[in-house]
Amino acid sequence: MNWAFTSSGDVTETYAVGLLRGMLEIPSSSYQERALADFLAEAMTDLGFQAHIDGVGNVIGVIERGDGPTLMLLGHLDTVPGQLPVRSEDGKLYGRGAVDAKGPLAAMICAAASAVDFPGRIVVIGVVEEETPGSRGAMAIRATHDRPDALLIGEPSGWSSVVLGYKGKLDLRYTVKCPATHPSNPAPKASELAVACWAVLVDLLGPDAGHDAFARPGATLCQLNADLTSATADLSVRTPPGFDIDGLVRDLRERLPVGHLEVLNAVAACRADRSNPAVRALVTGIRRLHAQPRMVVKTATSDMNTLAEVWDIPMATYGPGDSRLDHADTEHIVLSDYLRGIDVLSIALTELAHLPARRADQVTDAPLPARSLR
What we know:
By secondary structure, the protein is α/β, with parallel strands linked by helices.
């Protein structure tokens, strides 16, 4: 028997914890994911996947077990900068990415490898650059892969919660240059114009805007580099479903007397129906582990947004880990929760095995929405 598996075909707990620890010990900040991709390609091959790394650096593992449905499980390889010492303490595993999002990706790999009776095709993907505005990894997947019959996104939801949706995101860059002048000159300075741009954006969003509610937009001044003659401000707006992104950019441009406003990235909000098969499968898994499932929406953005733009299929986001620890210097995952997450995903895969597989002539991806502001 393969040393990674129990007699029933499940990945052993020792292997599952070791896989995650190995992932945490490999730094993989955005644009630096190749070492982790190589590690996972080898690990997935050992677990029975057909694994490779695609042209943008995504690691892809495929298990073919019949002509049943195709399921895609997709998480991300990259983390924010700042490697943390990897250590185990009091049943917790510490390290950058333990929660966001190596823990969820490792759980998906283990669950897929254990799904020995699944009658179709399971595709597990670790994408690059999710923590960047362009989401290049997920963009490449949607451009090169046929849509699956169901999609699970690996992000920390907590082992007993399912994420139904995320806010959208609008990334802007305002640049302005002014002639050199004395600080006491009443003419506007570049630094003042950049600050005024931020103030106009806040005013346009209104007094109720904020990051504490899914139904309202919220803005962040991400970066400001400015002096009297030149300034650059990077702005980000998290947008609720139905938000008029084009209208906001148009109104902001109209109220800026000088300078250039560039749209770096725009992705719409997404929200899955709680009755769709992907959500129901995860709920079944949570209930079988004797917990009451919670349905949540997030005020952040994920690769679910990117893929929901073109794939109208059952989808949901799930993963062990406390999302309040995302990007934190104390980032860690409770190992018992990580193992429960693998069990929930294993049950969900069994439930999704009953999905009808689309025929080739039924696979027609939705057209990309127009992005005139790019």
